[in-house]
């Protein structure tokens, strides 16, 4: 059949844009844990119809950023220690795989971009700028993911990384993330040297630096539960 003259791309772009804006608003704390999400209010805020908002909320629920039960309101999900640990395990494994596949494909330009991203990351940490730190961290890790060209890895990371980013904002707002600067530098050096196994190990290790925050999150949840008994 002939290709239709009209394109569905604008709708797809609108849907994705709404999802990204709501996702980022949850990650950066604009929409707080427990806050009720009414699709009509969100649609008015974003200047769109309710349909893409509803689609975005379903995607956010699948990602663990929104909670909704039949007959009850839709709310921003709380920071659940178990959910974050699950996401951490998946994200760490996916980045390890991406680096393993990417190292042989990385160019000198890719390596230099990773190095510059780490410099921006360190500068942002010193300034206590969590948003800039997250942006630089995303860029650094995104380079080997893009070089790997593994669509399945990219899809999984898109779903689960935002769950971690909510916790990482707490760490990157202080100097507690300085250890990641060192790990990033090692990762870049190993990528440059073409050491696949060592680079993959360091990539995995980088995502384990969240453990102290996850332990604190679990402790806080246990304390709240005990107080409620």
Measured between the Cα atoms of the first and last residue, the distance is 65 Å
Please name the fourth-level CATH homologous superfamily of the largest domain. GntR ligand-binding domain-like
The name of the CATH topology of the largest domain is Four Helix Bundle (Hemerythrin (Met), subunit A)
In the sheet with the most strands, the strands line up as: 1-2
Give the number of domains.
2
Instruction: Tell me the β content.
Output: under 5%
* Helix percentage range: over 70%
Total helical elements: 10
Q: Write down the secondary-structure element order.
A: HHHEEHHHHHHH
Q: Quickly name the level 1 CATH class of the largest domain.
A: Mainly Alpha
Largest beta-sheet details? 2 strands, antiparallel
Specify the structural class.
mainly alpha
Number of strands: 2
Identify low-pLDDT runs.
1-9
Textual characterization of the structure:
Helix 4 crosses helix 7 (151-172), helix 4 (81-102) runs antiparallel to helix 9 and helix 6 (130-148) runs antiparallel to helix 7 (151-172). The longest helix has 22 residues, at 81-102. The protein has 229 residues and is mainly alpha-helical. Strands 1-2 form a two-stranded antiparallel sheet. It has two domains: 10-76, Winged helix-like DNA-binding domain superfamily/Winged helix DNA-binding domain (Arc Repressor Mutant, subunit A, Orthogonal Bundle), CATH 1.10.10.10; 81-217, GntR ligand-binding domain-like (Four Helix Bundle (Hemerythrin (Met), subunit A), Up-down Bundle). A hairpin with a 7-residue loop joins strand 1 and strand 2 (75-76). Helices cover 73% and strands 2% of the residues.
């Amino acid at each position: 059949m002939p290709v239709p003259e009209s394109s569905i791309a604008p709708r797809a772009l609108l849907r994705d844009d709404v999802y990204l804006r709501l996702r980022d608003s949850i990650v950066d704390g604009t929409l707080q844990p427990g806050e009720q999400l009414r699709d009509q209010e969100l649609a008015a805020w974003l200047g769109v119809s309710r349909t893409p908002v509803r689609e975005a909320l379903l995607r956010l629920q699948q990602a663990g950023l929104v909670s909704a039960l039949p007959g009850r309101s839709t709310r921003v999900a709380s920071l659940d220690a178990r959910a974050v640990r699950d996401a951490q395990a998946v994200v760490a494994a996916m980045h390890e795989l991406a680096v393993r596949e990417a190292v042989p494909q990385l160019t000198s330009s890719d390596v230099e971009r990773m190095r510059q991203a780490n410099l921006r990351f360190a500068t942002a940490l010193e300034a206590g700028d969590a948003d800039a730190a997250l942006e630089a961290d995303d860029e650094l890790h995104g380079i080997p993911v893009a070089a790997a060209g593994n669509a399945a890895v990219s899809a999984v990371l898109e779903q689960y990384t935002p769950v971690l980013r909510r916790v990482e904002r707490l760490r990157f707002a202080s100097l507690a993330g300085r250890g990641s600067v060192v790990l990033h530098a090692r990762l870049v050096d190993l990528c440059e040297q073409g050491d696949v196994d060592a680079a993959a190990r360091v990539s995995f290790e980088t995502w384990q630096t969240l453990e102290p925050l996850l332990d604190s999150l679990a402790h806080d949840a246990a304390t709240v539960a005990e107080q409620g008994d």
